[in-house]
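[AMINO ACID CHAIN]
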Amino acid sequence: MLHGKEHTVVEIGAAPLTIEQVLAVAEKGAPVGLCTAPEFAARIDAGAAYLDRLLSDGSSIYGVTTGYGDSCTVSVPPELVAELPLHLTRYHGCGMGDMLDEAATLATLVARLNSLAQGYSGVRRVLLERIAQYVNERLLPRIPAEGSVGASGDLTPLSYLAAALVGEREVSFRGRLCAARAALQELGLQPLSLAPKEGLALMNGTAVMTGLACIACGRAEYLSRLAARITALAGFAMRGNPGHFDPRLFAVKPHAGQIECAHWIWHDLGGAGNAGEGPRLQDRYSIRCAPHVIGVLRDALSWIRRDVENELNSANDNPIIDGEQGWVLHGGHFYGGHIAFAMDGLKTAVAGLADLMDRQLALLVDSRYNHGLPHNLSGTTGPRAAINHGFKAVQISVSAWTAEALKQALPAAIFSRSTECHNQDKVSLGTIAARDCLRVLELVEQVAAAMLLGCLQALRLAERDGNPAPAGLAQFCAQFDAGHPFVDEDRPLEHELRALAAAIRRRDWSLYA
């Protein structure tokens, strides 16, 4: 089991999970535990027992007594039914691309476990217990990111979870890569033998895209707050007009996220006690309209959360089995359309933050627009100013990262295509949308890191000129300024930018409680 810091156990099967609970496991080391209520065990056991009765009666059940996908018309001889799940895991072992990192893998396992724990998949409790054990031991399948069309669910990437459970393929365990069977031996465990529907139940669902979506939501929510703080820093450094964020102004256009963002910036700049208008009656849009840009993301996160958590707490494989009521229905709950649309929408709104901060930095480094700051934010004075270029190249890099983020914001779901003998003839591409969203987030975090470094330099320059920052902004910068000396003579800034980007991804700083 996990050692070290104690964490609250995230209980599976008792109540709907939240994104934050998934992130507690994936990013903060929390363990999971199955619900101990008798009715939970009874519900899971009823599904597995009902499926056994159907098999005994000779019933035809997709993926249990038939082939998969377009092969649903092929009957499997009774003596081969037990082998069918293993074949499903093996022929889907064709993923490519980078491997999911530890957080993404854990989020995937939690999403799959929670879906199976709804009690409509016909699986045994031992399967749920084993997945929970893999999570808690951090015995993690190596899952290639590429190969899913998002319907019938995340078949190929989830085959790596199924394979790890039966002791096949590679896993990450105790800081090293090893064969799954070797990791099981270290724990004194035998590989699991999958019951007739369990291979399909593990793989025929939306767990990869949903796990990635949970991670994306956490990072996007933080970036929305950070973008507001950065706007306040940049606005102050360029002697902007704080009246642009007056609560009275936003009361007449009451989008909730926009009001919230303006409120944050207003208080960062001193609220009602601030200094009034700056050199311009109206600041340029990237400062003045920042709440209108960031507010779109804030408001979008509310419906995105709704849809991601609905998917997280759904039974999303096929067929659906209710052992207590005694029915089996074949459908398409593996279809990831809601996640695809949510992630396509999220990456568009997040890319808008990169565009906003890119414009803010362009103003900040340009002495024609930054109201008294030196060109390129260089701290050099005297004759050596001629050979020092400050943040010139940082602004170019930010422009490149922003361009890539905007390019990646093209929706994935519109590229649906027919596959698998035209059985899967309309697919969601939800996993591609979620992966794209994480890439956009990475790029925007890099832009934010550059803006933080630029704003730190700008505040130091302003203070040198006798214009100290408001206390709240100064305290925020004090949390990270020690590792980032004043840029007087030019120096490479890559390592500082990487450190700030990593801090942003970890969400190191508390923002707007």
The first helix runs from residue 19 to 28. The CA atoms of residues 220 and 502 lie 14 Å apart. The two ends are 33 Å apart (CA to CA). The beta strands are 10-12, 32-34, 96-99, 140-141, 144-146, 170-173, 176-179, 320-322, 327-329.
